[in-house]
Amino acid sequence: MTWRDLLFMHWQVPESLVRPLLPAGLEIDRFDGSAWVGVIPFHMTGVRPRLLPRFTASSFPEVNVRTYVRHGGKPGVWFFSLDAADRLAVWTARRCFHLPYEFAAMATSCSGEVVEYRSRRMGMPEAQILCRYKPIGPPFRSVPGTLSYWLTERYCLFAVNRAGMIFRGDIHHAPWPLQPAEAEIDTNTMTAALGIALPHERPMLHFAKRLDVVAWSLE
Q1: Residue 31 near residue 150, CB atoms below 8 Å
Q2: pTM here?
Q3: Number of domains in the chain
Q4: Tell me, what DSSP letter sits at residue 1?
Q5: Which domain range does residue 62 map to?
Q6: Residue 178 belongs to a domain with what CATH number?
Q7: Backbone angles phi, psi at 32, to 5 degrees
Q8: Is the peptide bond before 125 cis (omega within 30 degrees of 0)?
Q9: pLDDT (tens digit, 9 = 90+) per residue, 142-159?
């Protein structure tokens, strides 16, 4: 798959808001002692199993809400929600990957470097995001030990099935070609149902134009 026109929006949040939302067995991963929550809109293209031909690939917008965890000493991503505009992708991810996908009415458009992004979840609880964003500087590779590296260079996700079993899904991609970004956020209720009130401070923002990704089955 390929991830396009992606915006990382990150907020530092109290650990007490995150811990009750995580399953037993996952530890909160912290940077300088703090937990972080991200809301990440982007567009997926070329999504297909390895053995299927390219013409079977699907494309759709997606926005995920996530935090950062550890299990067995390995750092990874925990998704609170993943909204997508493809019903088959939502069904497949929920059934095969134990991920909390939801179907949403979504639209994206680009005008020059500006990306306009709209999403409204169709199920319950409702969640919406309406924003415009763009890169404002040249691409760079984040340096190990920095916050931008810690937030973005994550190569696995964790999921839990109905029986409470923890699964890990590994992914592979080149280092993120990050760019500094700016955003106008008109509406963002993606974390409201979680009980996480995002800080009033502007989030940390990073943009990425394109990244090719390979994912493996859950273990």
Answers
A1: yes
A2: 0.95
A3: 1
A4: -
A5: 2-215
A6: 2.40.400.10
A7: 50, 40
A8: yes
A9: 999 999 999 999 999 999
